[in-house]
Amino acid sequence: MRINVQGDGNVVVVTGDASSVKIGDIRLDSGESFDSVDFSNGHNNSGVGEAESASAKSCAKLLRAHYLNSSSKIHPTPWFEAGFQLRTTDIYTELEVTSRTERGVESSSSESDFRKRLVSGRCNRILVEGEPGVGKSTFCRKFTLDWATDDLEWAGNFDLLFTLNLRQVTRSGKLIDAIFDQLLPEDTDVDKGHLEHFIKKNQDKVLIFLDGVDELESTWKSDVLKLVKRRFLPQATVVATSRSTERHHLVTDIDGHYIIKGFTLDSVSSYIQKYFESDEGAAESLISMIEADDNIQILTTNPLNAVLLCVLWEDSERALWGNKVTELYRQIIVSIIKRFLKKMTHPCHSVKKFLEISNQSYQSWVKWRLMA
Ligand SMILES: Nc1ncnc2c1ncn2[C@@H]1O[C@H](COP(=O)(O)OP(=O)(O)O)[C@@H](O)[C@H]1O
Ligand SMILES: [Mg+2]
Known about the structure:
Elements (H helix, E strand, L loop, with lengths): L2 E3 L20 E3 L21 H22 L1 E2 L11 E2 H4 L4 E5 L5 E4 L1 H10 L4 E6 L5 H14 L10 E6 L9 H9 L8 H10 L4 E6 L6 H11 L8 E7 L12 E7 L2 H11 L4 H12 L2 H6 L3 H13 L9 H19 L3 H11 L1 H13 L1
Parallel strand pairs: 7-10, 7-11, 8-9, 9-10
Antiparallel strand pairs: 1-2, 3-4, 5-6, 5-11
This protein binds adenosine-5'-diphosphate and magnesium ion (MG).
């Protein structure tokens, strides 16, 4: 094994088996990992002191608690029913995923392939693309939960996992601040400096999900780009999700490229059965209605549309709505507005809101009011 020793005054010591050597500033040549060599300096083998290790340990514990709380439930319709939640493990349905080579060739892939890639050490900058509502955030949430519950083998490869919602990044533009703002309790004992030091020295044990690169406020843009472009924490594994574009501006910086396609036709049925877990009849009738219409079938491969259709199916008491997709959308909007209105305590304010949302929504609302 070749080791580069940088900085002044370092001494290279060649030792026999089971020896312990203290080295000031070590860089491993690419392709070699900390696991394969003993860098014991009296505390651990990552070049950090006891205080830093303790901070990282306590951070991991807090992260797990946070993720178990925040990721174990999905709120499928947060805009009108904050209280309506489904357990992630009950409702999560495998997504159809493809991967794209550097030459742009797309081929079929899977979530398990993605998982393997994460820990393969072959790539550590991954872009996950997909249309709005296709399941990118839910995909991150599922992986985050798997790490928190230590359910699957891959999770053990990472001491720390940070899943950041880029839309919520508000101040400073520093990764460490976003971690403290979004993921740790305000009164945490974790020391910022110690944690930062641990992350730097144990990059290969750190996984970062950056959810919604396309939703990023400009204040943080340069830091996220630095992270993706390896100018910052180059050995950490970074997964960025983004809305699909013709040719994504990050493609030249990444070494893994996945595209989420949504549900397959089979998984739409499986999703509906899970959604109507306690009403088999509703599930079956909705599945047969969808199967009879190609357009609606295609529409529901987008998970967000599948959710909306289930909501509408509940609201419309399983009435048929004709076979036009535009009519279906109209009814979905009316259904959302109805539920939203139910939640609102000040109807006047809500009317203004509807005007803001869109003229089309407003028209539908007026129509519904006239019908009511
Ligand atoms: N794999 C999945 N299993 C079950 N439901 C899903 C899945 N993916 C997405 N959904 C549902 O679709 C909604 C939209 O998905 P989301 O992850 O927010 O999409 P995106 O981030 O791509 O815009 C979620 O709130 C969830 O209810
Ligand atoms: Mg999202």
